[in-house]
Prior knowledge:
Elements: H1 3-31, H2 45-52, H3 55-75, H4 80-86, H5 89-102, H6 108-131, H7 139-163, H8 169-199, H9 209-233, H10 238-260, H11 269-292
Amino acid sequence: MTPIGYLGIAVALLGAFLLSFGSAIQQRGVAAMGEREDGKGGLAIRQLLKLIRNRQWLGGSVLVVLAIVCQLSALAFSPITVVQPVGVFALVITALLSAHATGERLGSSAIRAIALCVVAVIAFVTVASMTTRIAPIRNSNVVAVLIIVAAVVLGIGGTFLARRKRLTRIFYVLASGVLFGFVATLAKVIIGRVETVVGGHHSPFAVGGLTYLCLLGIVLAGSLGQYLQQSAFSSGSPEVVVAGLTVIDPIVGASIGLAALGEATGTPLWAFIVFAVAGVAAVFGVVRLSRRRPDA
């Protein structure tokens, strides 16, 4: 990476801090409704309306929005394969905040699960920073990403509607992480296309219809992801939900960057092996954490 690329990492770290505090406050707002759930069925409409009127939840949401702004800003400086994994540090901060707020110790099993997530993502981002690059985003890349996003949104949405009463918290955690990973990918696509238009001194309307489809994809995937995330908050400790956002999200985002956005051009075979091993280890860590930290 160029020196400016490391600025993206610094901005992403700031976003991680904002995300951890915002998510912890959001979870308290959800818990303040006094209607804890068993993780099945998701939040009802009346509960969502209640959340919108909850000042604590709204305060946390403001911090989360600022975290998103930091993430998008970081994507303008660095490859998605580098920016996304940095957010895993929010998992550590959130776990410490949750333990402090509840007066409970994390326990050795939870600490090992968090450590596994962090080490796996650090390995991923270290290798990615050395072997990936920002590549020009072509229309064929955008079409491929849009097709994948549409399939994932339909798949997760269909699964939720068909099996709503039988889905547990881990589904909400993993599914929201996957969806937000695609949101970050679409945002990266839009940033790349806008930079191309601005650099070429074209009209803002020259970004094309595919860019507007990406915006639509962000709205759909982001809305469904936000709903699933809040449903996960209603049934468990905040660090488990943040684990989905900061571990599953970057693995998905970085994988799409590698597979569909051309950021892996010239990447050696050994790097892909590290990516695969780190990805499996990170997901395993999230699942273990969800089992060791049921409620806080």
